[in-house]
Structure formats: C-alpha cells, structure tokens
Amino acid sequence: AAPPLAKKETYKVGFAQTESNNPWRIAQTESMKAEAAKLGYQLVYTDAAGSAAKQVADVNSMIAQGVDVIFLAPREEKPLIPAVMAAKKAGIPVILLDRNVDQKLAKAGKDYVTFIGSDFVDEGKRVAEWLAKNANGKSKVIELEGTTGSSPANDRKKGFDETINAAGGFEIVASQTGDFARDKGRQVAESLLQAHPDADVIYAHNDEMAIGAISAIEAAGKVPGKDILVLSIDGGKEAVQAVVDGTIAAVVECNPRFGPKAFETMARYAKGEHIEPWVKNVDKFYDGSNAKEESAGAY
Amino acid sequence: MLTLIKPKSSGDLARMGVLLALAALILFGALRYDNFLSPFNILSFLRYNSMFTLIALGMAFVIITGGIDLSVGGVAACSSVVAAMLSTHSWWAGLAGGIGAGVVAGLINGLVVTKMRIQPFIATLAMMLASYGTALLLADNQSVSVSYDTGFTVIGQDDFLGLPIPAWIANGAYIAGWLVLERLPSGRHILAIGDGEATAGLLGLKVDRTLTIVYLASGALAGLAGVILASQFGAGQPTEGVGWELFAIASVVVGGTLLTGGAGSVGATLAGALLLALAFNILNFENGLGWISLSAYWQSVIRGGFLLVVVILQAKLDSNRKVD
Amino acid sequence: MSLLLSMQDITKSFGGIAALQGVSLEIREGEIMALVGQNGAGKSTLIKILTGAYQRDGGAIRFDGNDVSFSSPAESQQGGIATIYQEINLAPQRSVAENIYLCREPRKLGFLDRKVMRDGARKVIRQFKLDIDVDMPVSRFSAATRQMVAIARAVTQDAKLLIMDEPTSSLDEREVAVLFDTIRTLQKNGLAVLFIGHRLDELYALCERVTVMRDGRTVAAGPLAGLSKMDLVRNMLGRELAAFEALGRDLQATGERPVRLQLDNVGAGVRVRDVSLSLREGEITGLAGLLGSGRSETARILFGVDKLERGNISFGGQARHYLEPSAAIADGIGLVSEDRKVDGIVPDMSIRDNMTLALLPKLRKNGIVDRRRQDEIVVRFIKTLGIKCASPDQAIKELSGGNQQKVLLARWLCTDPRVLIIDEPTRGIDIGAKTEILKLLRNLADDGLSVLMISSELEELLAAADRVTVLSDGVSVADLPRQDLSEANLLAAMAHQVN
Amino acid sequence: MTLLDTTLKQGSRISPLVLISRYGTFVAFVALILFNIAVTPHFLSWQTFNVNLTQVATIVIVATGMTLVISTGGIDLSVGSLMAISGALAPMTFMGKLFPIENTALAVALAFVIPVAVAALLGAFNGLLVTRFSIQPIVATLVLFIAGRGIAQVMTNGNLQVFKTPSFQFIAMGNLFGIPAQVVLMLIIAALAYALIRYTVLGTQILAVGGNERAARLTGIPVKRIKIFVYMISGALAGLAGLVVIARNSASDANVVGLGMELDAIAAVAVGGSLLSGGRANIVGTLIGALVIQLVRYTLLANGVPDAAALIVKAGLIILAVFIQQRADKV
Ligand SMILES: Nc1ncnc2c1ncn2[C@@H]1O[C@H](COP(=O)(O)OP(=O)(O)OP(=O)(O)O)[C@@H](O)[C@H]1O
Ligand SMILES: Nc1ncnc2c1ncn2[C@@H]1O[C@H](COP(=O)(O)OP(=O)(O)OP(=O)(O)O)[C@@H](O)[C@H]1O
Ligand SMILES: [Mg+2]
Ligand SMILES: [Mg+2]
Fold this sequence. Notes:
The complex is a heterotetramer of chains A (about 300), B (about 325), C (about 500) and D (about 325).
Chain A: E1 12-17, H1 23-39, E2 42-47, H2 52-65, E3 69-72, H3 81-89, E4 94-97, E5 114-117, H4 120-134, E6 140-145, H5 151-167, E7 171-177, H6 182-195, E8 201-204, H7 207-219, E9 229-234, H8 237-245, E10 250-253, H9 259-270, E11 278-280, E12 285-287, H10 291-294
Helix pairs in contact in A: 1-9, 2-3, 4-5, 6-7
Chain B: H1 10-32, H2 39-64, H3 72-86, H4 91-114, H5 120-139, E1 144-145, H6 154-157, E2 159-160, E3 163-164, H7 165-183, H8 185-195, H9 197-202, H10 207-233, E4 235-236, H11 244-254, H12 266-289, H13 296-317, H14 320-323
Antiparallel strand pairs in B: 1-4, 2-3
Helix pairs in contact in B: 1-12, 1-13, 2-7, 2-10, 2-11, 2-12, 3-4, 3-5, 3-10, 4-5, 4-10, 7-8, 8-10, 11-12, 12-13
Chain D: H1 16-39, H2 46-71, H3 79-94, H4 104-132, H5 137-156, E1 161-162, H6 166-173, E2 175-176, E3 179-180, H7 181-199, H8 201-211, H9 213-218, H10 223-249, E4 251-252, H11 261-271, H12 283-302, H13 307-330
Antiparallel strand pairs in D: 1-4, 2-3
Helix pairs in contact in D: 1-12, 1-13, 2-7, 2-10, 2-11, 2-12, 3-4, 3-5, 3-10, 4-5, 4-10, 6-10, 7-8, 8-10, 11-12, 12-13
C-alpha cells in the first residue's frame, strides 16, 4: 500500500509543477499556493520547466528535504515512475494531479495515493460528440494540436479523431501543431486557411490556440462562428466570453483549480479514509445554450 | 585535473576560481540547509547530473576546436528513444543502440562541417531539428517505455560500490577525456586546430579528420547521456533535452574555456557543470526553507544573475584576456 | 647530382585571374635555390601549389623520383617537404615546444612524452641562439621570435626539401647569420633548400642557383655566381633599377628643426624600461636595436595601444597621454604595424575599404561615405605605390604579401599624417618598390612629415634616416645624427649592455 | 614607378561573379516558390502572399539587428527574451499599470517609446558585458536569454495581458497604401540597415571590427562603442518586434512572445550568406534568408507534413540553402 500520512496540525507539502509557461499552469499553481496558505501549510514548490527528467530530480530534492506529502503534476506518464517509486521508498505519499502515470508500472493505492484530474481523451471525445450533433452541414476540420509529444495533445487528438471518424461525414483536412500558444496557433491557422479555403471547422487543443485561430479567421475575411466553427478545450474566462459572443462555438472545461480538491483529498487520506484510485474532476461544457448563465463561474 | 593544481597562467587562475566557487557553494548549502549533504541528496544529485556532465565534456572538446554543438540535447533525446526501443532485446542492445545513434548524428555533424564547409552553429542547429524530428517519428510522438526485464534499467538506476552507475560512467568519460586532451598527441592537435584551422592545416595537421572525430565524440557522449536518460527514467523521451546545449555551453565557459577555441580544460569543465547543477539544487532547497517561495520566474532571473556573477568573476580573474 | 624536384608548366588562376601561367622550377638534390620576383609575381602561390595548400590548374610535379600531387600540406610534409610559409604559421596559443613538435610529437607508450619534447625544443632553440621559455605560448613573442620558432620547426623536420618563403624579412643580421649557418650545416647532410627573399645580399651569400619569376612566368634560371646584381634585378623587373642613392639629410647642413614629438624616459612593463627620443619636423628618425630590444613596444606605447606607465610624451610641446590609438590619430599620428596579418589587414574587406579605413571619418559627407573622393584617393595610391591588384574591390587577403604591405602603407599616407611610425616599412617588399617607397618617405619628410622608422635592416637605416636612436634592452642608449651614422657605430650601440 | 599595369575597373563595381553569389540564396528562394506553385493548393493568391509577408516581418526585423551583431563577430541570444520584456511593458504602459496616464494618445505613444527604449538599454547592457568585461557574446547574451524572460514573467506574474487598443495595434493590423503596416515597417528597417552598411562610415567600421578587431582599433575605430551600438540596435529591434507580435495577437503572453526567435533569426542570417565569424553583413541576403525559412515553414504546413517529419525536412533545407549560398560565393 501507499505510505501512510500521519495526522498533524501542519504539514510540509511538496508540489512538483511541470512547467509555468501557459495560463492554465499558472492558474493551477496559484490555486495550490492559495490553498496551502489558507491551511497554513508550508509549500515546497518546484518547476520542472517542461523536463520530465528535471521533475524527477525536483521530487528527489523534496524527498531529501523530508516533506510530508508530495503533489506531483507529472509531465509524462512513464518517465515519472522513478520519482513515484523513490517517494514510496522514502515513505512519502504521492498524490498525482492532472495527469496520471503509466498504470502498467505503478498503481494507485499501492505505489501512490491517487490521481486527481480530468480525462484528456474524454475531453476530445466530448468536443467531437458536440460537433457531430451541431455541425449544421459543416464537415471539413482543421485541427490545431498542442505541443508535439505532450500527453494532452496526444489524448485530445485521440479522443476527438476517433469519435469524429466514427460519426462519419467529417474530414480532418489538416492537423498541425500550434504549440498550445496563441501566436503560433494564429500563424498556423493563417497558413492552413490559405491552403484549405474550404475548411469550416477549427478544433484547437486549448483556448489560446482557439483565440489565435479566431484572429486568423478574421484576417482571412471570414466570420468565426458563422463561416467557420471554432471548438476548444480548457474553458477559461476569455474563451467562455468568446462562446457568449459567438466566436467560439463550444468549449470543454478543464479546470486548473486543483487546490481545494487536492488538499481535501490529502486530509481524507490522513484521516485514514480509503481513497478511490481516480478522483475525477467534473468538467463543465459551454456552448451557446449555457455560456451566458455559466460564464461567471469560469476560471 | 592535475593541471588545476598549480596555476601557471591566468587561465589556470580562472579555473581555480571555478573550484573555489564550487567549494563555496557546497559550504553555503551545507551550513544553510538540513539534509543538504545527506547521502540521498548527494547520490540523486550525481545520478541526475551525470547526463549533463557527459554532454558538457563533448561540448568542451568541440568548443576547444573553435566550434559548437547545438545538437546535443536533440541527439540525447533521439538516442534515448532508440535505446528504449532496443532495450527489449537486451540491455547491451539498448546501450549500443543509443550510443550508436549518437555516433551517427555526430558523424553527420562532422561531415557537414568539414566536407560541406558549413559553419558548426548552423550544421548542428539543423541536426538538433533533425534529431528531434527523428525521435518523434520513431516514438510516434510519445514516450517509449524501456524494458524492465532485460536489466537495462540497471545502467541508470543502480549503484556500484555506493556510487550511482551513471556517476561511474561520467567519471570514466572524464578520465578518458583528460587523458586525450592532456596526455595524448591528439589532444595537442585538437588544441592547435582551435587556434586556427587554416594555420593548423599548413602545419600539416589532418584538420578534417580530427574535427570529424571530435564531433563524433560529442555525438557519442550525447548518445550515452540519452541511454542514461532512458534507463534512469524508464522511458525514451523524444521531447527531452531542450536547452541542454545551453547548459553544456555555459558549463564549458564557466570552466574557463574560451569559445574562440584553442584552450580549455577537462577538469574545469566538470567543475563548471557541477557548479551550475548545484545552483539548481540549492534553489530547490531554498524554496523548501519557506522564507521566500520563489516562483519559477524568479528562479530564472536568479539563474541568469548567477551566471552573470560567475562569468564576470571569471573575466576579472582571467586578466590575460584583456590584453588583446 | 640528380633532380630532386621538377615543376613543369604550372598554371593557376584565382576566379578567372591568372596568377601562374606556365612556371617551371627545378631543384637538384642538396642544392640551395633562390626564387626571386616582384611582389605578386607568384612565388608564394607556386610553393603553396607544390605543398598542396592550393591545387594547381595544370602542369606536372615530380618530386624525389615520383609524380606527385599533394592534396594537403600534411601529405607534402610526410612526403619529405618542410615549409615555412610567408605569413608565420604557428598555433599561437600553443607553447614553443608544442609548435616545434606538432604532428610528430615524441611518444612513450602512445602518450605524449613531454620531457623529451621540452628538452628537444630547448636544444633547437639554443642552437638558434634564442633564450626563451619553450613552455610559453608563441603568441607572447615578437614577430621575429615567432619567425625563428617557425624556422626551428621546419629545419628539425628531417626533410629532403626545405622551403622558406621570406624567412628573413623580420630578422636582424645576427639571426640571419645564425639561420644561414644552420642551413649550410643541413645542406651538408643532403638537404635541398628553396629560398624566397627580396634581399639580394642574402641571396648571394646563401644560394647557388636562382630562378626568376615575373608575371606568373619563369623568366630565367641559372647559377647565381656569374650573375651580376644588375642583371638579376633587370630580369626580375623587366627594366633597369634606379640607383639606390643615399636619401638621408645631413643635419648640420640643414640646421636644427623644431621637435614635434618627444618621449622622455618612457617605460611600461619590463620590455620598455627607459626610452627617450625626439621626432622632428621634416625628419626621418630611425629606431634601431636587436630583436626584442623593445622597439615595437615603444611604438605601441607612443600610439596609445599599450598603456604608458612611466615618463612623458609631448606633442608640439604639450604633454600627451594617449589612452587609445584614436587619440594619437587625432594628433595626426599613424602607425604601420609590424605584423600585417594580425594587426594590419581586415582580410575579407576590399582594398578600397582597407586603404581608407583610418581616413573614413574624414570622408564623411552627411554621415555618408563620399565615394568619389574615396575612389580618387584609392586609385591614386594604387598607382603611386604600384599595387598589383585586379580591382580596388578585390579582397585584400587575395593580394600577395608585399602588395598587402603597400596597401597598409597607403592607409596612413592617405590620412596626410604629421607623424608616421613605420615598423619594418619594407618588410616583404621587392627591391624595385623598396627604393621607391623610401624615396616617397623622403619626399613626404621634406614636406614636413616626421617619420619614425623602426627597421632591422641597417642598410635601410643608413640610406634613409636623418638620425637614429638605438635601443638596447628597453633603454635608449644612443642617438646618432646623420654624420655619425655608420654600420660600425650602429652595431656598437646596439650591442651596448645595460643593466 | 611602372610596375605591372594595374587595371582598375571603376564604375562597374558589381561584377557578374558578385551577382551570382548574391543569387545563391535567391535561387533557393525562387526554387521554393516554383515548387509551391506546382504542388501547394491555392498558393498563388494575394492572401497567401500577405500571410507569408506578415508572418515573416518580425523575423526580418529581429534578423536585421542580428546581422549587425553577427557582422561584428558577435551573436545575440537574448532577442526572444527582449521581445517578451517589451511585449510585457507595452500593455502595462497604455493600460496605465506602470503609472496612470490620462491622455490615451500619449499613453499609446509612450507604449511604443518605453518598451523599445528599455529593450535598447538591455541590448546596451549586453554590449557592455561583451566590451567592458570581455565576456564572450554567446555567454553574455545567454544571461538575458535566461533571465530576460523571467523578468517579463515576474513583471506580469506570468499572466496574459489582453487588450483591444486599435491605435496601438496599428503597427500590426493597420494598412499603409494597401500594404500591411508591419510589412512596411520591415521594409523600412531593412532598407535603413542596408544603407547603413553600404553607404556610411559607421557601416564600414562595423565590418572592420568584425573582420579584424585589433586592426580596427589600430586605425582609430572606437571598437567598444561600435559593439555596444550594434547590441543596442539589436535590442531595440527585438523590442519593436515584440510590440508587433503582441499587437497582432491583441494579447501579451510573457511566456511565449519571441520564444525560439533567436534561432530563426540566426538561421535567416546564415542562410542569407553572412558569416557567423563576422566581417560581412548581407542585409538583402538576410531578408531573402528569412523569406526562405518562412516559405519552408509554409510549404510544410500547407502540405500537411506532420511536425516530426517537418523538422527533418527543415533541417535538410537549411543545410541545402547555406550550401548553395556558399557554392555560389566561391565561383
Ligand atoms: N587566394 C587568392 N585569391 C585571389 N588571388 C590570389 C590569391 N592568392 C594570390 N593571388 C594573386 O596571385 C598573384 C601572385 O601572388 P603571390 O602571393 O604568389 O605573390 P608573391 O610572388 O609571393 O609576392 P610577394 O613577394 O609580395 O610575397 C597576386 O597577384 C595575387 O593577388
Ligand atoms: N631574448 C629574446 N629573444 C627573442 N625574443 C625576445 C627576447 N626577449 C624578448 N623577446 C620578445 O620580444 C618582444 C618585445 O620586443 P619588441 O617587439 O618590442 O622589440 P623589437 O625590438 O621591435 O623586436 P622585433 O625586432 O622582434 O620586433 C616580446 O614580445 C618578447 O617576447
Ligand atoms: Mg609571397
Ligand atoms: Mg619589432
């Protein structure tokens, strides 16, 4: 079983973040810090700057410093296994945030406490399902992928592609990476819209690229929401507002505010409760039908 | 490393400076943080940073010839994928495959530089792109799991006589590198080429062949780092290695080697790499103290500032450089 | 004696411009052959082709009984040819010992045998009567010392043929004598030598036969013994040489002139200890001394390159402390430095830009270079100095050594300076042009220019200088006016011991 | 003195050989265009032309400064980070976060001046490290490469700044005579740099510093001042490019503005035929070099080459373009 956690007044908690180069990660870090401060815990925070290897080293330095528990947002499924195992060996419980590790190599409840997060594949799937229902004859899709090789990019692509192909009648005319960034997403969209003037749907793996795509569509003299449907994942404030404005057709939420749930789970574990292997985040879905009412709740 | 002991020129003095800074930083950490000198921290520090010391060694040789190798990070990533894929056959297939991939990349670098006469910066920049591309293609955009059954993970994860195996590997490489540079005639040739390729050619050196071998060696060391990467973290990682080249370049320079070539020290490069790596480790510990919770942003500002201080000190010590 | 080397009908062109158009050269075993010709005649190109540094366009080479076509200097070195190229080629940051043994390092069990290397190097260096630390990087030494190291490297190479491209251009007579002794000893052991040089006396002293080149062709070859200097020069130039007249002025006849630039007890570092000298309006002042006596470094201090640590400099009676060359230039001082490759040319730049580099700020019209005036000046100096080039836009690195030197001279002449310091003014310049250049300096001096001429050639000093200051070991030990100038006096002063 | 006749060619300064060498990169460029016309769907359209020009504008602006730095024998890795800093500063200025400004016109004007000035100062700081402390350019500029983005992130706390300020965004969204403003800006900057190198004293002095620094000093050229100047220009141009990027996106994200720009810019300079060792500055070449890189990117995207394969193709094309360029140079 995973190492136990003693019940204490206050804790020294480690949070190994994978990177801080996008609004989503920044919101996640903020949420963790705020919650730790609220509870009066000491937070040891590291940033792996996008390197799985460095993240393992970061976790090791937390182990060396003798933290009580480690929150780990693993950069990747497989390379973080050694970190999980090292913590287990050192008797420090690990709680995974937003991405899981390879289930063949490590198991929740045995090697680490649990995984808290959404399902990236499912997010892509929900976008595709919405599109299949609300396409209104639109069928030619440009897909703006996240950073090549990253797991959200792979999973969001997998979920979407499989579902939309199964639905039939749709064609993904181009699928290229926009690096999860607004500027790159815009440039790629600009180019792809030139090469595929007949495209009428753009599916972006995150809000930033979707907003970039909107400006590319406008520059090409077309109207987002009318000529071209834009779909996105993340559901931040700006994107939800865009849904209200009609420029984005639909967006799946992927809420970065992990703080409350993470520390609550930790408290439950300290009390000795059994923790389910996957603490699922419930993600909202915004489209024209509900965006206005729900926009206040977007992060 | 023996050359470090008696300062002969101001260059040696600069190298002594690195050692002093290293010692000061260790002392600082030991006094300030609990568990800083704990065996766990030391061992995991060595295990992880062996990869960087390896590529810094290759980089030192390339820089001594007056070149530069920007491809080391990409090559390491690509090698880690190759190693992971081959590790299912046997541990040595993974090892040989990873190094082999590095050798191929290094050889291509060398040939493009010497035969096509393309500047090292551009040649190796292109190789960086190409090796990431190859890694992603081979790995199908995902990490590739290594085999846990063939003993491949022993290379990166196990210890031997109390020291992590990667640290042994790095030690071996440094001793070999030191012998080549300081004790073999080819070391003199590498240095002379860095002094000026055209001149070296007129002096009768086989410039092209030596340069090709140096780039090949840098590739092989990056390949070895890739093998350790795959073995230590249990996966070949096609997107790892970003920025490693800058770390390696900074290590070499902090070690007192001039980017203009013609001079340099293997031992001081090791000290330079350890110094920079230690700065990361210390930042993590500082965060753990909880006085100031440094955001990632402040960390990069501090790292930049640290580099600045080190190179300015270096420049001050190496007064020789100002003369001309 | 049998033929060691035979080059037949060698041709070579650079970018469509012919440098060699049918050159032939034959050297017998164990003989010393002189190769002479004007600047740009193609001598250096010929030997670079022989040693594989360049590839020939046509012709045949036989060496030591085989048809050869070396593809790199490394190959020719292994084939038995040791070469000293015109621009000193050593690895600057490597030590003297390492440079001497580069590529044939003594080994023990495959490892470098440093002791053997160091001892060997010391022995060779001592043989050349140098007293330097063989563990020091060669960049620490003066051009002359480096030249000696390059020679030492070449003569210890155990070759069949030794090629020397102007090895003596930066040496003084003492070292030349040492060098010639060494060459003669080696010749006794069967070594053949190809010697390129512009100083006729040296050629006659050393060589047995001569090959004359002109315009990329061989125009004559034969024994040197019967050939008069006049005939040799006529062959070289294709015309008669103007008589080498005495150019210096007798100061008693012309009277004392006002001092323009004065150095009083100047010193810096250990090389320049106590130098006093004065440059007067309209005079050529020679600066003589042995290798390492501190002449070049005095010039560098005077010009603001190195820092003045002791003593005073005054210009036109006012105290000066030049911290940068630009300050000295502002006073109308110019310096043609000793090492043209390192301190002189900007290799990739055109002749035009190289020549006008110091003048440029004055060619500015609304921030823009006045091309018309620039062209006018460049063309004028190419003509007056007889610079052999394809066009003013040619990169200077493509010029022959002597022609590069002329461009550098023009660089300062075109600024219309008031003081001109020239460190080895005729280094590498052929005999025809040399007289012309000395005459030109004379004329400029007569128009009021002050010249400081640092030279290792006594002949040149005797001919052109109005007075000579002699340095020994960083101290000015004598100041000889024209009427006291003689070879014996100069040599006596140069050998003066200070402590 | 009648030595050999010196044939002086005057007036006809551009020999055919020089022309061919200039065409080295140009040949690659034309080949790419022809390839695209044949293969890429919908390539020949005004809008495609527009997209490519606007996308290349920032690379050209930065690469122009980089060309100057490289021609002195240096290199500037900090350009991307300086873009991020200026990109972070501008919205802070016109949104009044730095200090309150009542007058919008003034605020927008300051939003141009302050960020560019700060970037220029940081560039001068690079130059100071290189000259005053004799730190090698790669390492000297590595300091700001690492720390600079951090500074921008600290200033904004990593947060995105979103805005809609048409007067400010004119440099990226506006049109002058039907040409996008950023393209006009790019052309003006390239033309100025070209004139600087070709016609001015300073230009020649810059090349002399890169060609032989010791010789340059001995001819009275203020070597240190010139070096500081080129780093400053490089910084200022990077700052300007940063403004273009954020104006185009209506948002400033310190995490990504200018990310990887240093490599694009250096590649453009190299493909354009300037030696990285200094002494040469081919501004037209840099312009074409940047266009080649942009077209390669467009070609790969438009033809659906997956990212991984695109990296390999891009690598090969860079090598090929530089190789062709050098071949042509040797003729
Ligand atoms: N790399 C080159 N590119 C173009 N032209 C060259 C090159 N090297 C030499 N030349 C030309 O070839 C001719 C012969 O030059 P070379 O250096 O052989 O003359 P030289 O006889 O050695 O003269 P000097 O006595 O001045 O050293 C010159 O006109 C020179 O400009
Ligand atoms: N005994 C020596 N033999 C050879 N070189 C020496 C000796 N002593 C000093 N040097 C070198 O001479 C240089 C200083 O001489 P400097 O060049 O100023 O004098 P110089 O009289 O102009 O000599 P040169 O004729 O070589 O130019 C130094 O670089 C030093 O390394
Ligand atoms: Mg010559
Ligand atoms: Mg001298």
